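Model: Ready when you are.
Researcher: Fold this.
Model:
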Amino acid sequence: MKLFDNTETAFKLKSDSELERAYFLFRMIQSQPMVRIGTAVTNFALKAHLPVEGLIRSTVFDHFCGGVTEEDCLPNIEKMYDKGNVYSVLDYSVEGKEDEAQFEDALNMTLKTINFAEEKNAIPYAVFKPTGFGRFLIYQKLTEGEELSADEKSEWDRIIARFHKVCKAAVEKDVPLLIDAEESWMQDAADRLIDELMETYNKDKAIVFNTLQMYRHDRMDYLKKLHVKAQEKGFHIGMKVVRGAYMEKERERAAEKGYKSPICVDKQATDDNYNAAISYMMEHKNMAIFAGTHNEESSYLLMDLAKKYNIATTDKRMWFGQLYGMSDHISFNLAKEGYNVAKYVPFGPVRDVMPYLIRRAEENTSVAGQTSRELNLIKTEKERRKL
């Protein structure tokens, strides 16, 4: 039996009823029309303030999210750590906020999760999104080379200050910090800022991590250029490597605006690009990798690379990551083999986390093979338990 086929290990933390719920949810997600209808109905119900939060909470929210607050998440985090040797990354998944008070709230929440991570062995990283700390439009203008107004320059200065504040706290508490990637038309500004932060804070080891979305065909070039800079300036590179979560949006905008899509031509090209990135990173000692992947082949490849370069399974420069509620067959089986594995555990008020949940559902629908794999594994485990 291949490592990721072991359903007893994969689902050992799930009760029979939780397994049934997972089966029901993935069956729903497998159907594109159901996802579209469900998304429209949910958005309408929330906007109309209909009493649906309880229903959302007991189904899709509780499967894909750890809770409403970070304290809420603790029982799930401790259970995964104590019984499955799987760590957690607390992800405050409130999106689309636009004012200064909300950016300060996100800053304070990130500082809080850094403190939380320092106190809890089960939480090895903190994380935030660039647009959690400032308006999307500011990043976009800088990426597209537009001049900022005097007020916007002040706004950008405040964004930079927020980034530095969390990085200083991360260094002080020795908690590595993952910074998520977003849409390509704002990402260059975020990349430039994060490169500077790595140069400042990653002198001894990788504390600040950027994110490489490997469905973008230009990311290997970016990584190689950053590596040259890191060697010249003497700093460590930290990277979360993912395939990416905004593919449809990226392609639609490129078609609408008449520029070449930044997305790889097909899934195979994305897979090749992803594997090239993790191979390149594993070759170089001054890099730390957080491999965010639900892909079994990429996971096997990373295990092989660790053996090839004599990197211990417990080496803190190498982590595997999956989203809470998905790919338990990868997470728990890797952890059983002694690898560093962390689940991204989203949390936040139900209505504020809905854009995140809708994106997860759409993402699963677009990767049909993955949803089928989840369903088959759940079916296998249900049958194993019956026997």
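Researcher: Now this one.
Model:
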Amino acid sequence: MDARLYVSRLGGAATVPPSKSAAHRAVVCAALADGVSRITNIEYSQDIRATLGAAAQLGAKIREEERAVTITGRGSASGFATVTRPVFCNESGSTLRFMIPLFSLTAQKVRFTGAGRLFDRPQAVYQMLFDRQGLRFEQAVDGITVFGRLRPGGFTLPGDVSSQFISGLLFAAPLMESESTIEVLPPYESRSYVDLTIGAMQQFGVKVTARSRKNGSVIYRIAAPQRYTASDFAVEGDYSQAAFLAVLGCVVGGITVTGLNPDSQQGDKVILDILQRCGGKCRAVEGGYRFERSLLRATEIDLADCPDLGPILFTLGCFCSGETVIRNAGRLRLKESDRIEAMQSELQKMGARVQVDGDTVHITGVALHAPREPLYGHNDHRIVMALAVAACASGLPALLTGAEAVNKSWPAFWETLRGLGAKVEFE
């Protein structure tokens, strides 16, 4: 689907979607819990549907409503269902990495399938762990097959890889026969996502303790066996999605973003600090923040703990005077697309000055022009949204192909943009 964006006057208020990160974790915990849990303020994006589908294959009973889901969990690993077909993870890295350790506890041969670039993403951490325990872990271009039950013990993981591996082990460890420890070696990146995992586990009755060592590593201790207990869980608004509207608001002015918890532990809440360092005008209002037109200036940004903000920070750099430097951007190459190459190539169609030096990106703020060819979304939800913001914020018409990619995380994105006054037609 193509989206044609026209020059529009923007302003007003919009509510962000529920946090995808929090929803994944709530669904997993509810599926493991003993009893009936109700998760409210949930949006059925493609990624969340993948996790719900996997949870059902573990044996959880799921009843969907418009904005809520009721999940009757299995209570323990001994209650997991027989796996009779491949576990389809679509393009959701969270689903895949959260579920691999859990499905290993069935002691069955399980195949995981997906779509897009899912199996281009590295899985070496799990390969290593399974190999060390003499278990089967086979990755091919079209899927991963595991066979054998992960055993408790001491796990050591690098901290500069996806935090999803750490979360996956954390989910499974309480269901094992005895205590486990997980040591995360420095540098420990994206720790805020692990904190979200532990917060969800604790709400569902599981205890995890953390201890920092002098060498910079962090050791998590998980007693076992423990039981997840049913809980009602309200999913808070998503700061990684709010970032798109926040940047738009600081460029065009007059945009209020609601549905956000000011005390959130989401790592992507750092977008507020980044915008303030750039001179962005932001003030708290009831349920969210108000963003006003600002004279933005360049700053240096470290993406190590907030990689999902990468694409919209490329867009932000285009509207800042001076040179914006984005460091530790390497993991952007391993997402639904190579997000560094994608943002560089598409923004350059609008006249942006983007230079890449290894894992560091330099963006010099210059006046943009209307693209002379279509912008391509690279089958990546965050690329599509970041490019849409770039066009709307610069007041330039543009044709954006692959606009349907937003369904992965924010199906109502285009409706939200229209609600702020954007004129968008679909072809």
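Researcher: Key takeaway?
Model: The mean pLDDT is 96.
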